[in-house]
């Protein structure tokens, strides 16, 4: 009896040791997500609204994302809606492996829109294929009704999906981009330089 108990304890110790080693050698989800997104740098992809209705502001318009720049710790992704080149998603790698998402909105003359730089920072390192961004204080101060916004991005080998949901609201925005087919790069987004 004592021998079998000792063997069971040794087995649990061995399993625990391997599990701990696996966790310490595994890179954080945010690092893998960042590396996979960086592989798309310089490429453009067309998207579509999921569950779109005629009331949606993007309905019937050509939607293109362009992974424009991938600098140290910063990725910019202009989101072109037809002839509107005012939107750029800006992702920044923060200390501790968290990712910050900001929405840079510009007018055609390059000046900042009154409502810009809203977004949030992931509350943990997330997963390699999905990152969540709850609204931050800057967003709450700028757009009080957006205090409960949660944005998330999913990324896999075939698609990139940008999502927005406001808690206690049935409305959601989901734009899915097909990563299997590159498209022509759109013009420089408003307010940015080549």
- Using the coordinates shown, work out and report the CATH topology: Lipocalin
Q: How much beta, percentage-wise? A: 35-45%
Shape: globular
What is the CATH level 1 assignment?
A: Mainly Beta
Number of E-type strands: 11
Instruction: Please compute the radius of gyration using only Cα atoms.
Output: 21 Å
Terminal Cα span:
74 Å
CATH architecture: Beta Barrel
The tally of structural domains comes to 1
Q: Which consecutive residue ranges, at least 5 long each, have pLDDT under 50?
A: 14-25
Please count the helical segments.
3
The largest pleated sheet is described as:
11 strands, antiparallel
Give the helix proportion (percent range). Answer: 10-25%
On the 0 to 100 scale, the average pLDDT is 88
Order of helices and strands: HHEEEEEEEEHEEE
Structural class: alpha+beta
What does this structure look like?
The structure is a single chain. By secondary structure, the chain is an alpha+beta fold. It has one domain (28-182): Lipocalin, CATH 2.40.128. 21% of the residues lie in helices and 38% in strands. It contains 3 helices and 11 strands, in the order ααββββββββαβββ. The radius of gyration is 21 Å and the shape is globular. This is Secreted protein. Residues 1-19 form the signal peptide. Keywords: Signal.
């Amino acid at each position: 009896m004592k021998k079998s108990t000792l063997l069971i304890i040794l087995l649990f110790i061995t399993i625990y040791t391997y599990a701990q080693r696996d966790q310490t050698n595994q890179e954080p989800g945010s690092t893998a997500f960042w590396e996979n997104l960086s592989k798309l740098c310089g490429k453009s992809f067309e998207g579509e609204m999921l569950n779109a209705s005629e009331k949606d502001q993007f309905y019937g318009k050509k939607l293109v994302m362009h992974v424009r720049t991938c600098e140290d710790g910063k990725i910019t992704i202009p989101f072109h809606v037809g002839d509107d080149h005012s939107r750029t998603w800006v992702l920044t790698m923060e200390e501790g492996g968290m990712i910050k998402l900001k929405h840079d909105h510009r007018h055609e003359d390059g000046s900042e829109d009154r409502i810009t730089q809203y977004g949030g920072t992931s509350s943990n390192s997330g997963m390699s294929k999905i990152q969540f961004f709850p609204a931050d204080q800057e967003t709450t101060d700028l757009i009080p009704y957006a205090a409960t916004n949660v944005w998330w991005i999913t990324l896999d080998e075939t698609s990139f999906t940008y999502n927005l949901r406001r808690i206690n609201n049935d409305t959601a925005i989901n734009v899915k981009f097909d990563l299997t087919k590159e498209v022509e790069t759109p013009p420089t987004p408003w307010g940015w330089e080549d």
